[in-house]
């Protein structure tokens, strides 16, 4: 029964990711984003899952412009055919979107990442983390992971203590 419930949670998470459209905003789909993700996939000798891409718009660096954070998944060609989930940040300059940083944020054995939002210059990811008895397919513990664009890197920020203000 536990395996069946875990499988249902896993499938529900996949449906959420595949059905979730990019948040409306200025250029959440952009040639610069497409080129960068394609190059990253080639470097990893993998292929992006375009239906799993999820973009959000918000100000990541405090300049008042609408930057873009993108969650994307690359299936690599290694034995076992792993899917890895990445987060990339793109800065909006006066002319175009420019890649700033990326980080590995999920995948089998790491965590499942379903959605992202930008809150106060921070990217917050809705995740499912692995509990002790979870199988590799099916993390079960709802959690959040936060990242901040700092000095050209996406840095994971520790979660606030329970009861602390957001």
Please summarize the sheet with the most strands. Answer: 5 strands, antiparallel
Give the tally of β-strands.
9
Order of helices and strands: HHEEEEEEEEE
Shape: flat
Average pLDDT:
82
Q: List the domain count as a whole number.
A: 1
The gyration radius over C-alpha positions equals 16 Å
Q: Could you list the spans in which at least 5 consecutive residues all have pLDDT below 50? A: 4-27
**Alpha-beta classification:** alpha+beta
Helix content: 10-25%
By DSSP (H or I, 4+ residues per run), the number of helices equals: 2
Beta strand %: 35-45%
How far the N terminus sits from the C terminus, by CA atoms, comes to: 37 Å
What is the topology?
Elements: H1 2-19, H2 31-43, E1 46-48, E2 54-58, E3 67-76, E4 83-92, E5 97-107, E6 112-119, E7 122-129, E8 141-150, E9 153-157
Antiparallel strand pairs: 1-3, 2-3, 3-4, 4-5, 6-7, 7-8, 8-9
Outline:
Helix content is 19%, strand content 42%. It has helices spanning 2-19, 31-43; strands at 46-48, 54-58, 67-76, 83-92, 97-107, 112-119, 122-129, 141-150, 153-157. Strands 1, 2, 3, 4 and 5 form a five-stranded antiparallel sheet that branches. A four-stranded antiparallel sheet has the order 6-7-8-9.
């Amino acid at each position: 029964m536990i395996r069946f419930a875990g499988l249902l949670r896993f499938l529900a998470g996949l449906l959420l990711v595949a059905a979730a459209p990019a948040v409306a905003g200025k250029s959440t789909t952009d040639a610069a984003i497409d080129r960068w993700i394609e190059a990253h996939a080639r470097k990893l000798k993998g292929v992006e899952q375009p239906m799993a891409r999820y973009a959000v718009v918000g100000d990541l660096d405090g300049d008042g412009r609408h930057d873009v954070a993108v969650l994307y998944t690359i299936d690599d060609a290694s034995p076992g055919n792993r899917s890895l989930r990445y987060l990339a940040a793109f800065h909006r300059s006066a002319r175009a979107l420019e890649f700033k940083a990326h980080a590995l944020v999920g995948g089998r054995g790491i965590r499942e990442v379903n959605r992202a939002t930008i809150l106060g210059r921070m990217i917050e990811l809705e995740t499912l983390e692995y509990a002790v008895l979870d199988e590799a397919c099916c993390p079960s513990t709802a959690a959040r992971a936060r990242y901040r664009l700092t000095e050209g890197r996406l840095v994971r920020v520790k979660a606030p203590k329970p009861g602390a203000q957001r």
